[in-house]
Design a protein that fits this description.
alpha/beta, Purple Acid Phosphatase, chain A, domain 2, six-stranded mixed beta sheet
Length: about 260
């Protein structure tokens, strides 16, 4: 299986459509995973279904902090987006077959510069949600897809939060609390991070996330980490294009930033 991991879209659906067509044609991509902040809200759904916009292969979307999570619970809209657009809204904790090891899709993220949404459709990921998905895992995922990242990684926003400054040395200890209690990573994902590094796996897992808008890559504690850039009007290079080939067995994936 060859897939494209795409970053934040921010309602730029036609730009994303052009990118998707390009990479399906050039890269023989059979599916796309999108890392949240796609633009799933009332206005976005109206545009997607009203145009309509149909993507060239299945697109699997997790919820970002700027998406309206209530739409994930609207069965009629979820069905229409899947049928008419090939756009599939994935609830938090969705598991896909990754060829012997699962692919975990886990949306949810804190806002950086506005009040958090509370209640049933809260934007932030909770510890209970993370514990629930760990309880379902009997093997470490091959691929972990989240909107944000564990706060333990110590990412800090620049310039109004539009891009991120990375502090990979903050990962010197897997149990480091993070250099800044106000950094915008997800405290709940620290639970998954600690669980993952405690597992014994023969192949290196990949953890990919968006949210911070600046591409970056590093390796810590046996985990490959990739922050994927945006797919919107700011995408003037290949920064938002992480292509993966996932075999149908327990071999490791191959990746490229083509």
């Amino acid at each position: 299986m060859r897939c494209w991991i795409a970053g934040d879209v921010h309602h730029q659906f036609l730009i994303f459509l052009r990118r998707a067509r390009e990479w399906v044609r050039r890269g023989r991509v059979s599916r796309i995973y999108q890392l949240g902040d796609f633009g799933i809200d009332a206005a976005g759904v109206e545009e997607l279904l009203g145009t309509p916009i149909r993507f060239p292969c299945p697109v699997f979307v997790i919820d970002g902090n700027h998406d309206d999570r209530a739409i994930w619970d609207d069965a009629s809209t979820v069905r229409d987006l899947a049928r008419r657009c090939q756009l599939h809204l994935c609830p938090r904790g969705t598991l896909h077959d990754g060829g012997g090891r699962p692919i975990l899709l886990m949306g949810g993220a804190l806002h950086v510069h506005q009040r958090q949404r509370e209640g049933v459709h809260h934007n932030a990921l909770t510890e209970n949600e993370v514990h629930a998905i760990i309880a379902r895992l009997n093997i470490a995922p091959r691929l972990i897809l989240t909107h944000s990242c564990p706060s333990i990684l110590g990412l800090h926003p620049h310039a109004g939060g539009d891009v991120a400054h990375f502090h990979p040395d903050a990962c010197a200890s897997p149990h480091h609390p993070g250099p800044d209690p106000h950094n915008p990573g997800e405290p709940a994902l620290n639970i998954l991070w600690r669980w993952l590094i405690a597992q014994t796996v023969s192949q290196t897992p990949l953890w990919a996330f968006g949210h911070f808008h600046r591409p970056q890559a590093w390796h810590r504690h046996g985990i490959d980490l990739r922050c994927v850039g945006t797919v919107d009007s700011r995408d003037l290079s290949n920064d938002a294009r992480l292509l993966l080939t996932i075999p149908h067995n327990n071999d490791g994936y191959t990746q490229s930033m083509e």
